[in-house]
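[recover] target loaded
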């Protein structure tokens, strides 16, 4: 755990006047840019959060990649392919934004491949049917939007700006997922059952995407003060539930939570207890697909080595030519 104003990288105490000016700038809603002074703990928090986010975009391609070759029509295949390519783009924007904090892409990749860095636990679940493509777009991208829209106002400029375009694309992803669910829910009984099973599989893991409850969230208070976060995990989870329940009703599908009910007094839906033990197990590496996902990334990295080598050789050649000409 880091806290603001302890020590910098060399173990020196951070100057109080710089810390005060930094916080004042954030309080004035001004962006912090890469060359600005920032406390070491702010930098580390952002590197952790942004790299986890980038890794999630990249690993998040895998559950849906499974269905690109199995999509039911050419049209569905084109849409899914475009969606998965968007996710690759999101990963690349966010890796670039993270590099502005002084960490290299190679280092970030290494941390993912050695299991040191985390990514969103939702991507460690399997996608056994086409309806999972619908449920993921609708719920997982839907939850991502809830998380990411407030990040457009994050205090760190490069992260906030990368979120603007990403959120526009996420909204297309959410709608394409909901549209898949709409078609299935209005189809044959077998299709409707397939949609219901996908909702049953995805509902609880998508609620876990908002992270531990506020009582157990280690990073929340400081991140709120720094305006990296604008809402707590539980607030965002509640917003997501309130927005999603009517969408499920419209589809004629049942959310797999017997305790879910509208609360007149609070103006929100009450929901059943989340199985936090499951979340922590998946984070620890014991989810249904953790090993498979990581292995797929390791294989992709190894198989791509010749591309990186060729790019470096080409760059070297360009540099030599440039030097000869000079
Ligand atoms: Fe994305
Ligand atoms: Fe997405």
């Amino acid at each position: 755990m880091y806290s603001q104003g302890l020590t910098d990288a060399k173990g020196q105490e951070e100057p109080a006047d710089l810390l005060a000016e930094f916080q004042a700038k954030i309080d004035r809603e001004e962006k912090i840019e890469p060359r600005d002074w920032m406390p070491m703990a702010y930098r580390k928090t952002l590197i952790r959060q942004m790299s986890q986010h980038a890794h999630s975009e990249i690993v998040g391609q895998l559950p849906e990649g499974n269905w690109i070759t199995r999509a039911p029509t050419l049209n569905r295949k084109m849409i899914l392919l475009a969606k998965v390519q968007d996710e690759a783009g999101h990963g690349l924007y966010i890796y670039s934004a993270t590099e502005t904090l002084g960490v290299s892409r190679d280092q970030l990749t290494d941390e993912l491949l050695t299991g040191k860095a985390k990514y969103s636990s939702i991507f460690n679940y399997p996608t056994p049917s086409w309806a999972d493509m619908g449920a993921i777009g609708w719920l997982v991208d839907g939850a991502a939007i809830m998380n990411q829209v407030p990040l457009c106002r994050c205090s760190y400029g490069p992260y906030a700006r990368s979120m603007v375009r990403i959120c526009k694309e996420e909204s297309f992803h959410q709608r394409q997922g909901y549209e898949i669910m709409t078609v299935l829910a209005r189809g044959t009984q077998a299709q409707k059952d397939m949609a219901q099973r996908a909702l049953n599989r995805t509902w609880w893991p998508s609620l876990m995407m908002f992270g531990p409850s506020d009582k157990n969230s280690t990073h929340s208070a400081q991140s709120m003060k720094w305006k990296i976060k604008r809402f707590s995990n539980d607030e965002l989870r509640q917003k997501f539930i309130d927005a999603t329940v009517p969408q499920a009703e419209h589809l004629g599908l049942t959310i797999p939570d017997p305790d879910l009910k509208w609360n007149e007094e609070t103006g929100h839906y009450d929901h059943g207890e989340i199985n936090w033990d499951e979340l922590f197990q998946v984070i620890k590496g014991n989810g249904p697909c953790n090993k498979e996902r990581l292995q797929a990334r390791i294989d992709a990295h190894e198989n791509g080595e010749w591309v990186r080598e060729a790019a470096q050789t080409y760059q070297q050649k360009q540099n030599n030519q440039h030097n000869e000409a000079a």
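[recover] notes: Residues 219 and 283 are 16 Å apart (CA to CA).
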